Amino acid sequence: MLWKEILIRYGELTTKGRNRKDFIQQLKRNIKYIFSDLGSLTIRAERDRMHIELNNEEQFEVLMEKLPRVFGIQSFSPVAICEKDMGSIQQLAQKIMDRYKDQQITFKVEVHRSDKSFPYQTYDIQKAVGGYLLKNNPNLSVDVKNPDVELRVEIRKEAAYLMSEVIYGAGGMPVGSNGKTLLLLSGGIDSPVAGYLMMKRGVRIDAIHFYSPPYTSEQSLQKVKDLANELTKFGSTIRLHVIPFTELQVLIKDTVPPEMLMTTTRRIMMKIADKVREEIGALALVTGESLGQVASQTLESLTAINAVTNTPILRPLISFDKLEIIKIAQQIGTYEISIKPYEDCCTIFTPANPKTKPKIERVVHFESQTDFDEYIERAVKNREIYTFPEKQQTADKFKHLL
Ligand code: ATP
Ligand code: MG
């Protein structure tokens, strides 16, 4: 096999001074986790880059396919390795350029010589490798400014490393390097995208979903499970907390005026989410709200919803247009799941004219006439917890026996 390892260049973490070591370790753990099916990978993490050893073709193919969605990676390259002698380097360069032999292309040789004991100077290596390739390959010509292929030759202490491709990574920071949050996950288009954007910033997520059977169906819950599962491909397991919400929704409907229904429902959801957040030790809540998108997402509504807690509520989509959100949902693979037509709990009792500018005093006044706390406690206590990806579930089921 031509390629012996994959070289990874870090994303933003290179700028993070003191925490850099933790970031790098987290990235290494995430890669090991995402590719655990490939057997034990040998990963060498250095200060400014990481190397994954390749043992077979399958590893190479799976890594090339999935690395582009691992957060914390700026770019990566397959690398060929040989002994540090000019003949071997020229032959390996030829093997790499053989891959382009059916095309007329321009190239340049870029040399980095960190092993100063190597008997050839940078310029000499460039000339020897470039000249050799030109002589043997009529399809190649040199363009130093804007080549189709940049063949990079690195002379290091251990060996010579050659590469010709730089593939862009997902950027961002390794999931888990920036703490944990709780995502309010509906079956809609927005909240999975919000979760994805937080993961991109290195945040680990648990998800919480409010479920109101029989008003919302088993399929609507399955859809949310599928979404949680889909998000795990960005580098971590996700736990989903499913809250039995029917009892509370009926109670809210029976006790507050119709135009307040939506605001109170949202406030109670937020209270429950905040309690779960506290239990699991997460630091913030995340929603898929976007300013002005619907009645519950005006500044007045958001203020009324926010008022139930001091916990930061992160809304990564607040300034996004729906079309921008849809585009991301399509790119990350959640869109097709989200558009399946099942009811969300929030739509089942929605009045025709919800208040877009709820008065918080009036909301608080109506809510104060009912004791919701006991119901809230019960909903939190009776939640069901699922872990994704699915293969983890068996382990969870039997955890109490271990
Ligand atoms: P989404 O597409 O995420 O459902 P939306 O534009 O449909 O968003 P709403 O239905 O008003 O807007 O929901 C706003 C936010 O409230 C959602 O993004 C989500 O974070 C949260 N949310 C709504 N319904 C639920 C639910 N049943 N369980 C958990 N969170 C929910
Ligand atoms: Mg929704």
Explain the overall architecture.
The protein is of the alpha/beta class and 402 residues long. The protein has 15 helices and 15 strands. Helix 3 (86-98) packs across helix 4 (122-136). It is elongated and about 85 Å long. The model has no long low-confidence stretch (mean pLDDT 92). Bound molecules: adenosine-5'-triphosphate and magnesium ion. Residues 184-186, 188-191, 208-210, 287-289, 293-294, 296, 344-346 line the site of adenosine-5'-triphosphate (ATP).
Give me a quick take on this structure.
Pathway: Cofactor biosynthesis; thiamine diphosphate biosynthesis. One of its GO terms (molecular function) is CCA tRNA nucleotidyltransferase activity. The chain has helices spanning 20-34, 57-66, 86-98, 122-136, 190-200, 218-231, 246-255, 261-280, 299-306, 322-332, 335-338, 345-348, 360-367, 373-381, 391-397, and strands spanning 5-10, 43-45, 49-53, 73-82, 105-113, 140-142, 149-155, 160-163, 167-171, 180-184, 204-211, 238-244, 284-286, 313-314, 384-388.
- Fraction of residues in helix: 25-40%
Number of alpha- plus pi-helical segments: 15
Largest sheet: 9 strands, mixed
Give the N-to-C terminal Cα separation.
Answer: 43 Å
For the CA atoms, what is the radius of gyration? 27 Å
The number of strands is: 15
Shape: elongated
Domain count: the total is 2
Tell me, what is the CATH class of the largest domain? Alpha Beta
Distinct small molecules = adenosine-5'-triphosphate, magnesium ion
Structural class: alpha/beta
Mean pLDDT: 92
CATH architecture of the largest domain: 3-Layer(aba) Sandwich
Order of H and E elements: EHEEHEHEHEEEEEHEHEHHEHEHHHHHEH
Strand content: 15-25%
